[in-house]
Automatic annotation (TrEMBL):
Entry-linked Gene3D superfamilies: 3.30.460.40
Official protein name in the record: Nucleotidyltransferase family protein
Segments for region (Disordered): 1-25
Pfam name, any one: NTP_transf_5
Provenance organism: Streptomyces solicathayae
Signal peptide stretch: none
Family matches, as InterPro entries: NT_sf, NTP_transf_5
Domain of life: Bacteria
Length: 232
């Protein structure tokens, strides 16, 4: 089965006929509030393990991303939505054929940067881009092998999690309350210099990094420079 075959099954619309949530919302650790589904943590973990095991057998590079990746890094999040895996676009047909051969339901989204699947009633997104940037071999090579419940699999590196989350911020989606516990939990694993460098002058990312400095989650830029100068 190729991507054209997958398009024969149309993804169900969300309640109320609203469009799918943007990348910035779907790939984060979302805040709890009204209108969110019940805690699906164990069901999502079971679906993640099943798809992760199949992807491992494919020989194609991939990495777990999104809220389940944060969970794998030890962030105590309550899983409520889908599982996201990043893979290269050129591997899409191989992965689709593998999932189809194992009876995984494939659905066709309107977006051209992902494939959607369902396992045990839970949604799985196989994505080719993070915050608009193509998934590359270099990104996947930096992934860490971590246990997800009982299955070990590649998980997006902590620094790349923060970069992709900050790059996804916009005037229409700028919930720092969602990002703050992730940054706190990952701060010892993150290369904050690279985060600052890769997010550049993006105003929302700069504002969040400044907030982290004020909260003493990360050192202020000036303090880091003084420390580097003193240790030279």
């Amino acid at each position: 089965m190729n991507l054209g075959d997958a398009s024969k099954t149309r993804a169900p619309r969300r309640s109320g006929g609203s469009p799918a949530q943007p990348d910035a919302v779907r790939h984060g650790v979302e805040a709890h509030g009204e209108g969110l589904p019940a805690d699906h943590t164990q069901a999502i973990l079971e679906a993640t393990k099943e798809i992760g095991s199949l992807l491992k057998s494919s020989g194609c590079p991939f990495a777990l991303v999104g809220s389940v990746a944060a969970y794998a890094h030890g962030i105590p999040v309550r899983l409520q939505h889908d599982t996201d895996f990043a893979l290269r676009r050129q591997d899409a047909d191989t992965v689709v054929q593998l999932l189809d051969a194992h009876g995984v339901e494939l659905v066709d989204p309107s977006e051209d940067w992902l494939i959607k699947a369902r396992v045990g009633g839970e949604s799985i997104d196989l994505i080719f881009a993070l915050a608009g940037q193509a998934v590359t071999a270099e990104l996947l090579d930096r992934a860490e092998i971590l246990p997800v419940d009982s299955v070990r699999m590649p998980v997006l590196a902590a620094t790349d999690i923060m970069i992709s989350r900050l790059a996804a911020l916009s005037e229409h989606h700028c919930d720092f309350g969602v990002l703050l516990p992730v940054a706190r939990g990952l701060r010892e694993k993150v290369d904050w210099d690279r985060v600052r460098r890769d997010t550049g002058d993006a105003p929302m990312a700069a504002a969040f990094l400044y907030l982290l400095e004020l909260l003493d989650v990360v050192p202020a830029v000036a303090d880091e420079r003084r420390h580097r100068d003193a240790t030279r």
